[in-house]
Design a protein that fits this description.
It is built from six helices and nine strands, in the order H-H-E-E-H-E-H-E-H-E-E-H-E-E-E. By secondary structure, it is of the alpha/beta class. Helix 2 (23-31) packs across helix 4. The radius of gyration is 16 Å and the shape is globular.
Length: 216
């Protein structure tokens, strides 16, 4: 079985398990397989539903985790989205396919900035802008955002990210301990500026390093 057939089988499994619920997320997964966003030696493992190593000691999330976060985010065409933690660029490619407009993604590790840019270029993704910097501070120049998706675990919800959300906007973020377990939070900003937080259970992400995250 070739890489494409293996990947298609993974996507159909995620649909059967109810983790991919929308046609739009399913189509995005099929358009941008994870094997396009890992190093050559890991391509044959890209269909497995588990995290994989990427440069600089980081990981690209398991397909089921990416599906869960994208479905929670409820992304629609034309939304202004900020991603924090570019990593391999895979999640940003999926987001860009869902919103069909420019997506901004922040990455603090220079090696991963270049890795993600190369992957996105090879995959033919033209509407993702990879910005080097401290993602815990968000990205004020393009705020406010309809959605902010954070792919690293924070000690608490960073205040700048709430400030940069539109009213009725959503932040999807893992919050908890430095290593291993966090809770996946769906944070909705109300019209009066207050927030409603819904907990979607335990997850495991690399730490969000930065001024409003963890110290290195």
């Amino acid at each position: 079985m070739n890489l494409d057939e293996l990947w298609r089988r993974t996507v159909e499994n995620l649909v059967r398990e109810g983790l991919i619920r929308s046609d739009s997320v399913r189509r995005a997964f099929l358009k941008y397989p994870r094997y396009l966003f890992v190093e050559e030696c890991y391509k044959k493992y890209a269909h497995l539903d588990e995290p994989l190593p990427i440069p600089a000691g980081q990981t690209v999330s398991a397909p089921h985790m990416v599906a869960i976060m994208l479905e929670l985010a409820d992304l629609r065409r034309g939304m202004n989205v900020l991603e924090i933690g570019t990593g391999s660029g895979w999640n940003a490619a999926l987001i860009a396919e869902l919103v069909k407009t420019d997506v901004y993604t922040i990455e603090r590790i220079p090696e991963l900035v270049e890795f993600a840019r190369r992957n996105l270029q090879r995959a033919g993704v033209k509407n993702v802008h990879v910005i080097p910097g401290d993602g815990s501070k968000g990205f004020p120049p393009k705020a406010p955002y309809d959605r902010i998706i954070v792919t690293a675990g924070a000690p608490r919800i960073p205040e700048p990210l709430i400030e940069q959300l539109k009213p009725c906007g959503k932040l999807i973020i893992p919050v908890g301990s430095y290593h291993l377990w966090q809770d996946l939070l769906e944070v909705t900003k109300k019209k009066d500026g207050s927030v409603k937080v819904k907990n979607h259970g335990g997850v495991a992400f690399v730490p969000l390093i930065g001024e409003f995250g963890w110290r290195e």
